[in-house]
Structure formats: C-alpha cells, structure tokens
Design goal:
Blueprint lengths: L12 E6 L7 H8 L5 E4 L8 E5 L2 E5 L12 E4 L4 E2 L1 H13 L8 E4 L3 E2 L2 H14 L11 H9 L12 H21 L8 H15 L3 E2 L1 H10 L4 E4 L23 H6 L10 E7 L2 E3 L12 H10 L11 E3 L1 E2 H11 L3 E5 L9 E10 L2 E3 L6 H6 L1 E8 L16 H14 L3 E5 L7 E3 L1
Parallel strand pairs: 1-10, 1-11, 2-5, 2-10, 5-7, 6-8, 7-9, 11-15, 14-16, 15-19
Antiparallel strand pairs: 3-4, 12-13, 16-17, 16-18, 19-20
Helix pairs in contact: 2-6, 3-4
Length: 434
C-alpha cells in the first residue's frame, strides 16, 4: 500500500477540490488519502457526479457515497450540502454491499441534506428542452431543481423521512404547484402523488438507519483532532458563484462550499488540495478557451477515455489552461496540487500549455468573470517537447522521463504550488506520492 501518512498526520482537515471543470480524478485521490483519514465527507452536488475507483480487479463508480469507502476504515459522511436521490442512493448502497463492505457504523447521512424527488428530474428535463439551443447541458438528474426547492424553502430534507405524515403532506403540497406548471406551462402530464409516495417507500425505509446529525458528529471529531477529508464533486470552474455562469452546476464545489456543505468552520481547514489533469476537459456547454477540435483533441479523448462516468457523454478536450488553474488556486487557497492523467500525454510529440489570454488585442492573465469575454479570448501557448515513452507503473518521481519532470516543474513554478501527488494511471497503485 502507498504510504501517504507522512503528509497527512499533521493535517486535521483537508479539502480535495477539482481545479478545472470536473472529472479531474478526485475519486481516485480521495480513495488514496482515505487510508489515513478518520472521516471522509462529501459536501455538495448529487448523483450528477461520478467518481470512478479502480483497485485490485475492481472498478466501481460512486455517485453519492464518499470515495473513502474502500481504502481503510474511515467513517463516510454525506453532508448537508448534498442533494440526495433516495432511489439512486439505495441502488448504490446495494452495489457497495455486494463488494463485501459493511456499511453499519461507517455511513452517516446528514439529517439536513435535501432530497431529489422524481418531480425534480421531470422539471430538469422539461426546462432543458424548453431552452432549446440555449440548453445548459445538465445531466437531467434533477440537481438544479432540487437546489431551487432548497433555496425557495420548499425542499424536503432527510429528517422529513422520519415522519411519514409530514413527508406525504409536503410532497402533495409541492406537487400541487408543480403539476399546475407542468400542465399549463410545459404541456406535460401531471405527476401522481400517491404513486410517487408508494415508489419511495422501500428506499425511505432502507435509508432511515443512516440519518443523523452529521455536523455534531464532525465537531466531535474536530475536538479529538481526528483527520477529516472533505470531498467535492464537479470542479471550481463549475461553481455557481465563481464558475463560467450560467454553464455551471447548482452548488459550490469550492472551498467555501466545503464549509457550508459539511458544517466544518473555515479556520479548521488546514490544507486545500487542488486536482488538475495534465490537460483540460469539459462536459456540456459553455466557454472552453483551450478546446481542441482537431486530431490532438480526438487523441486526448481516446488516450484518456474521456467519457462521462455518469452520462457516458464524450468530454470536450484541450490543452492545460494555467490562467484558469491559477484562478482556481487563488479562489480556494490551494496550497498543494495533484496532477492526474500524466500518462495520457505519453505519446504526444509536442504538448502545449496556455499561459495567458489575448483579449481585445491585449495580453492578460486574468480569468474573465463574463462568459462572453471568456468565449472571445485567444490562448497564448508555451510549447514543450513530449517525452514519447510510457509513464505507467512508475512509482518514483525521479524515474519519470526528464521531459515529463520538466513539464511538471514548469507548472509548479508558474502556479507557485507544489504537486504532492502525480497520477500515471487509473489504478490506486499507479500513483507517485512525493
């Protein structure tokens, strides 16, 4: 087993944050670091995110359960900032248990987390359909509408599952207004409340034993100075406040979201680890300055198997964008980085990295807050010679090809943040810990 404890043992709370548009390999990193963590906490998002884990001869994609379930004995918490589809969660619980994992006393679900119900999925899809060519490119999993219910103060929380009468009353009340909109605005069939309640019954009974006050649980862990690992879904550039709005997710994957989504105070955070690929990808619509619509882009997609773990959609691919990476570093206070998928670049003759943008005839290193401006930038590149040899199964940084180390050194010097981990393949064992 890889020894990560030398840089974990002095750090009470670490956040693992996507530094791009998601899909950076956070699940693998959380799985790796969970061996030395007492708690692993998922703090935002829903089943729209898929974290792929590969170990031994096993491959599993987790959507809601934290990625710390398979490496060590850490307690895994689904925090209050997550929106939970109860039916999808039960399917995932069964999948994890089938691999021999005992979830009793290991999985804890926040009583304050909000539910995704079937009407949220219906609303998600009809709204995307109505947008036409202006569609956001959501996964259709009901994430956005669930967060809308939350901030509109009509959401249904996990604690409501403990009182059947209250649960049914809230569902019927919400469906009354939703059905009016479905029939009169979207010309869709109404949803039958009784059938929906009946379909939920088995899932509710399965989930109930895991529901608790997770904020209190984590505060007690802090008092004991136990190691807590906070796991985000999506990436910083999809943050609803600081991302490429409106082409964003409906929550805050950034460091601030980690605190509100878990109940852990900001001053308890000791380390913020940003995860970045050795190149860039994006799923769905929105600006992407370094996107490659040529053979290099196709090669990145093929080499990196860049297809969504949740949707199967092909990801858009491009060169690494250091303007965007520096923005994510500043936004989150990242003091350490992980580089993933270095091996995807193994057979490229030349590799490019965006160091600046050109906008309105001027060079800038500022990541624009306005999507239209970001769409108009022209990336300014630095070109590297490729190393043209395999980096797979290399376990020591010193054994990486010199050209690969040169590439890594440049990123570290440009950003001012060191890489603690370098990943050279999808498996847990294909990792260099520095």
């Amino acid at each position: 087993m890889l020894n990560t404890s030398f840089f974990l043992k002095y750090m009470a709370v670490r956040i693992v944050i996507g530094a791009q548009w998601g899909d950076e390999g956070k699940g693998k990193v959380v799985d790796l670091l969970s061996a030395d963590s007492d708690y692993v906490v998922r703090y935002q998002g829903g089943a729209n995110a898929g974290h792929t884990l590969k170990f031994d001869d096993t491959t599993i994609v987790l959507h809601l359960i934290p990625s710390g379930m398979f490496n060590g004995n850490s307690k895994c918490v689904i925090g209050n900032g997550v929106v939970i589809d109860p039916i999808a969660l039960v399917e995932e619980l069964e999948e994890v248990e089938a691999l021999g994992v005992d979830l009793k006393n290991r999985l804890f679900i926040s009583s304050s987390a909000h539910l995704i119900l079937p009407y949220h999925k219906v609303l998600d899809n009809v709204k995307e359909k109505s947008r036409g060519s202006d569609a956001i490119g959501t996964t259709g999993r009901g994430i956005g509408p669930a967060y809308v219910s939350k901030v509109s103060r009509i959401g249904i929380r996990m604690i409501d599952l403990m009182d059947r009468e209250r649960l049914e009353e809230k569902i019927r009340k919400n469906l009354h207004d939703i059905n009016i909109a479905l029939e009169n605005v979207y010309n869709e069939d109404p949803i039958n409340a009784e059938k929906m309640i009946e379909d939920l019954e088995a899932s509710v009974e399965t989930i109930k034993p895991y529901i608790c006050n997770t904020t209190e649980l984590l505060h007690k862990a802090l008092q004991k100075n136990e190691a807590i690992l906070l796991e985000g879904a999506q990436g910083s550039l999809l943050d609803v406040d600081h991302g490429t709005y409106p082409y964003v997710t409906s929550s805050s994957p950034t460091a601030g979201g980690a605190c509100t989504g878990s109940g852990i105070p900001p001053l308890a955070i000791t380390n913020a680890m940003g995860i970045t690929k050795a190149y860039c990808t994006r799923v769905g619509n929105g600006p992407f300055p370094t996107e490659l619509n040529d053979e290099s882009g196709k090669k990145l997609r093929k080499n990196g198997q860049e297809f969504g773990a949740t949707t199967g959609r092909p990801r858009r691919c491009g060169w690494l964008d250091l303007v965007a990476l520096n923005y994510a570093i500043r936004l989150n206070g990242m003091n350490e980085l992980t580089l993933t998928k270095l091996d995807v670049l193994d057979d490229f003759e030349t590799i490019k990295v965006c160091t600046h943008y050109e906008l309105n005839g001027e060079e800038t290193d500022v990541f624009p807050a306005d999507c239209d401006q970001l769409d108009d930038v022209t990336p300014v590149y630095k070109t590297f010679r490729g190393w043209n040899t395999s980096t797979r199964n290399i376990s020591s940084y010193e054994n990486l090809p010199e050209k690969a180390r040169e590439y890594i050194r440049f990123i570290e010097e440009f950003t001012g943040v060191p890489f603690k981990i370098v990943s050279t393949g999808p498996k847990r064992s294909e990792t260099i810990v520095r």
